[in-house]
Design a protein that fits this description.
Length: 824
């Protein structure tokens, strides 16, 4: 098996996903990391002025490092980096699995791995809170992890072993302990016995929540659908002065109930310490919040009642030193000062309930008193405040688009492509550069924003996402002609048509008003007329667009929303009603080479019910229900099926329920008949969509009736339909033991015979026991390895070969954006 060196780079979509936190090294100027929910960790490269991914070595076999819950640096060793990450559950079996601690001694270039004693996932609710992973500044070998499933954990040997610390009164009384934590702070002022003594912890408060004065279980909270039932969180903030042996509640305000909210009470979200004060931001669930799992922070979709607190910890800790006299516990509680920004200008409603939560807070050692504070889920657009006097007073630095100081370099982020609104949201972390008080970074749900003149009167904010490619891509296509080089289906952002692989697209798929469709599942086009493109989008969150089918006659530059075919059956009507709601999967679409034949499999979540497949012979103006007939001539009324069009013959359509349950239509999708397949064909479900689709299916262009399928451990198969005999032959192309995760077809060799030779096959696969990217030009008889150990890019959702350039192929990833590879 040969190896050919390849180069890989992104088709750029800067940002596009949720950046959940920043970590500056306190001693090494210019060293800063960011963490994301599903896109791993990045380090800032000062020379190139861009972010560099630290997960390019991560493979499909274990993508744990893409899902980051906590990140920490060692104050004494700038090269040392700790990352708490994990998958939470095995993708294949669904069984729960514990996370890992990835430890680097060279700034994230290489890692060692240690098991964590609990499940971890970067995309769990509360993902924007922190810091959960903290190094004891007095004792660099000691690490704390405020986990979401096992409470507070501590390691005395850099993560090789862990012990559990209970905050309950009873010794190790885990049943009553707060298990879901938001942050841990380790005060550097008091140290004894090899540990810092003063700790502050934020818990979600639900383990001692109450319903009408009665104790409520976590399961009660998770299953709460009755809006008349209002749960109140218990206490969130706790303090220990003896390295975690005993804990007491840290004083915090008890807020009034928010009318209409399912859960009341506040959770500590983030903190900062400036050597004098400990600052804590708090947030609570709003009226329309979705109480999902533990439902707090911006993940609930709605926040209100937030606060900003200040504790004079330095003076209190100094007094504690003189009062302890060898005794344990906390003799006096530190004072809690409410320094929440106030006034209607800052987002308060008339009834005095804050209209948002509070997210990030940051000070700067070079300018005492300077604070940056951000809101989360502010109804009228999130706000960044600046204080120059420790939070005694505030000015507004950024307020949605109101101050006219927000600039967008990335095209899709511009307000004109987002209903005239700012795309900036979920500012759950904000950090002032410890070496430059004017340099500030803020996390958002769509990447990094920042300013380089924070303290100036004319402060300007802008997106700073160069190098951050964390979008989730569901499918990718390379048309044979036209200005479009690649057509990309993207989670949340919708879809992009790249005419230049090295420049961001001007806008994603949108309507005539530039309102974006989101999360496009798939697309299809005619090989004879690639300008005709049909796509299955979701409607956006605001309801400005609705899901269904959108049709383009100019290769994705403009779209028309096709009419929804109500009135065919009650079942179809019900699914169409769901698709009309925001952010609901539309399904899967196939279009014949005549551009008039369309078959649409409507979605039910991530599956495609057979009884909801419709066809059109007039380009999508009218639809009728498809019929399915089994091999005995009986009509099939239920099941699942995904449809593909032949690339040459407009009358041929192919339906897959599984790799053994195969249908063919010879009348342009009106009727599908089941075709018997050989006994050696494996049984593999093929009618899933979105990230649940574990297969790849490609109908070969230029030939009638040739279909390639990748089926994980069953390898790659080739189905050939012969119209003359009306029969199907099936052949396994890969050897036993080879595993194919995703596969795509590409251009023939320049010297190949168009009729006789097979197309290029590109695959993310395990070939002869080794995972990597491979290509084959002889129907998998021989393979060539085309990547290195640092060119893996995590989970792969789809692969497509370039239809015009030999050797180039595209990779739709789940964590690292859209990439293309070509020979070096």
């Amino acid at each position: 098996m040969k190896n050919i060196p390849y180069t890989y780079q992104n088709c750029p979509i800067p940002g596009g996903g949720y950046v959940t936190g920043f970590t500056y090294h306190p001693q090494a100027e210019g060293l800063v990391y960011l963490r994301t929910d599903i896109g791993g960790t990045y380090r800032w490269d000062r020379e190139k002025n861009r972010w560099v991914s630290l997960i390019d070595h991560v493979t499909m076999l274990d993508a744990s490092e893409a899902y980051v819950s906590g990140l920490a640096v060692c104050p004494e060793n700038p090269g040392r980096l700790y990352i708490a990450c994990g998958l939470a559950a095995d993708r294949e079996t669904g069984t729960e699995r514990n996370g890992i601690l990835a430890v680097s001694e060279d700034y994230g270039e290489t890692f060692s791995y240690y098991p964590l004693p609990c499940p971890v996932h970067g995309n769990w609710p509360g993902r924007g809170a922190g810091s959960r992973l903290v190094v004891d500044r007095n004792h660099p070998d000691v690490i704390y992890f405020a986990s979401q499933r096992a409470g507070l954990l501590r390691s005395l040997n850099r993560g090789q072993d862990w012990e559990s610390i209970s905050i309950a009164k009873g010794k190790n009384n885990r049943r009553n302990n707060e298990l879901n934590l938001a942050f841990i702070w380790v005060c550097p002022l008091i140290s004894a016995g090899g540990l810092s003594q003063l700790l502050v912890l934020s818990a979600d408060g639900l383990d001692n929540a109450s319903l009408d004065g009665m104790a409520a279980t976590r399961q009660d909270i998770m299953n709460c659908h009755d809006t008349e039932k209002v749960y109140r969180r218990g206490h969130s903030l706790y303090i220990s002065a003896d390295a975690g042996k005993s804990w007491e509640p840290l004083p915090m305000p008890i807020t009034n109930s928010v009318s209409g909210a399912k859960v009341n009470g506040l959770v500590g979200h983030r903190y900062d310490y400036d050597g004098r004060y400990l600052y804590v931001t708090l947030t609570g669930s709003g009226r329309s919040a979705t109480v999902n799992r533990w439902g707090y922070a911006c993940d609930s979709g709605d926040c209100c009642g937030g606060m900003v607190l200040r504790y004079p910890l330095a003076d209190w800790a100094q007094g504690l030193k003189t009062r302890r006299g060898g005794s344990s516990g906390i003799p006096l509680a530190p004072v809690c000062e409410n320094i929440t920004p106030t006034g209607t200008k800052h987002g308060y409603t008339k009834d005095g309930v804050n209209n948002a939560g509070f997210g990030g807070i940051s000070s700067c050692p070079l300018m005492p008193g300077l604070l940056a504070v951000s809101t989360i889920c502010e109804k009228r657009g999130d706000v960044v405040f600046i204080s120059r006097d420790y939070g005694d007073s505030y000015e507004v630095s950024l307020l949605d688009l109101d101050k006219d100081n927000l600039r967008f370099h990335t095209p899709y982020m511009k307000p004109e492509y987002n209903g005239g609104h700012s795309i900036v949201h979920w500012l759950s972390d904000i950090k002032i550069n410890p070496f430059d008080p004017d340099d500030v970074l803020a996390t958002t749900g769509t990447g990094v924003f920042g300013t380089r003149n924070f303290t100036a009167a004319a402060c300007v904010w802008e997106d700073r996402c160069a190098g951050v490619e964390e979008t989730v891509h569901l499918n990718v296509y390379s048309p044979p002609a036209g200005a479009a080089q690649v057509i990309d289906m993207v989670g949340d952002l919708g879809g992009f048509v790249f005419t230049d692989l090295n420049r961001p697209c001007e806008n994603s798929f949108a309507d005539r008003n530039h309102d974006r469709y989101i999360t496009c599942i798939n697309a299809d086009y005619s090989d004879f007329d690639p300008a005709c493109l049909i796509v299955t989008p979701r409607g956006n969150w605001t309801g400005q667009t609705t899901g269904g089918l959108i049709l383009s006659k100019d290769q994705g530059q403009t779209f028309t929303h096709l009419p929804l075919p109500y009135g065919i059956t009650p079942r179809i009507d019900a699914l169409l009603a769901g698709i009309s709601r925001p952010n609901v999967n539309s399904g899967w679409v196939a279009m014949g080479p005549d551009c008039r034949t369309i078959v649409w499999s409507l979605a039910e979540k991530r599956s495609l019910p057979l009884e909801a497949v419709v066809y059109s012979h007039d380009g999508g103006q009218t639809f009728a229900k498809c019929r399915f007939i089994d091999s005995f001539g009986q009509f099939i009324v239920s099941g699942y099926v995904k449809i593909f069009a032949d690339r040459v013959n407009a009358r041929l359509m192919y339906g897959f329920s599984s790799s053994r349950l195969f249908f063919i239509s010879r009348d342009s999708g009106k009727t599908f008949r089941q075709y018997p397949l050989p006994e050696n064909v494996p049984d593999f479900f093929l009618a899933a969509i979105d990230t649940s689709d574990a297969s790849s299916i490609w109908v070969e262009s230029g030939k009638e009736g040739v279909i390639y399928l990748s089926l994980l451990e069953h390898g790659i198969w080739k189905y050939v339909y012969d119209a003359a005999s009306d029969g199907v032959s099936c052949h396994r192309l890969t050897q036993a033991g080879d595993v194919c995760y995703k596969m795509g077809l590409g251009l023939l060799r320049p010297d190949a015979d168009y009729i006789r030779d097979a197309k290029a096959i590109y695959a993310a696969a395990v070939i002869r026991g080794e995972y990597g990217f491979y290509c084959s030009f002889d129907d998998c008889r021989t393979w060539t390895r085309i990547n290195s150990g640092k060119q893996m890019y995590g989970r792969i959702h789809a692969i497509a070969g370039d239809a015009r350039r030999f050797g180039r192929f595209y990779i739709a990833t789940g964590s690292r954006g859209l990439l293309y590879g070509e020979p070096a």
